[in-house]
Amino acid sequence: MLTSLSIDHTLLKPDATLKQIDQLCAEAIENKFATVCIQPCHVKYVADNYAVRICTVIGFPLGTTTTQTKLFECQQALNDGAQDIDMVINIGKVKDGNFEYVKNEIEQLATLVHSSGKNKILKVIIEACLLNDNEKQKLCQIVGDAGADFIKTSTGFSTGGATLDDIKLLRQYSPKNVQVKASGGIRDSNFARELIQAGATRLGTSSGVALMKDMPSTSNY
Length: 221
Known about the structure:
The chain is α/β, with parallel strands linked by helices. It is built from 9 helices and 8 strands. An 8-stranded parallel β-barrel has the order 1-2-3-4-5-6-7-8, surrounded by 7 helices. Helix 3 packs parallel to helix 5, helix 5 runs parallel beside helix 6 and helix 6 (133-145) crosses helix 7. The termini are close together. It catalyses: 2-deoxy-D-ribose 5-phosphate = D-glyceraldehyde 3-phosphate + acetaldehyde. This is deoxyribose-phosphate aldolase. It is an enzyme of class 4 (lyase). Belongs to the DeoC/FbaB aldolase family. DeoC type 1 subfamily.
């Protein structure tokens, strides 16, 4: 079922202002969303001013920074108050068939996140629109083996976003302990419900308030 706790209330635009971040946080608190998902530069501000769970992005949106850079960025975000870390894999390494690199990078981020305290979560963005089905299937296993908590479809900044087919594939081939997050282009409540029914447990969207308005009040929580 689609509920407010299914939603990472998201604002990742490069021109986002503090006024918009304030509004995002107020909406998240009012609607009891799972998190606010924001750029790393806003994490400390939100942690200092709002009682809301914070999700941020690492290696975003291309995933092409080095592993050491991602680790540094992740540590800074954790220090600033983030609880959910959404990292972007190096997609070029996937295309080269260098899955060992990808697994090692995820493992290092997972170790860092999970060692920083209880209830810290690592989500792995695979940018599914750039991958073939074999690559997606392989990554499902790698994400599980590397110790991440979620596999996530998209950054929302590439050539496509979440699709029902991708959610079904990711749910089918991921280990049971790995959850699925859909993101990118989720603006319609019917589509959001279909993504949940297909196997997603978390949705990354900037349209959370509109989605909740379309839902019966009894199903908000």
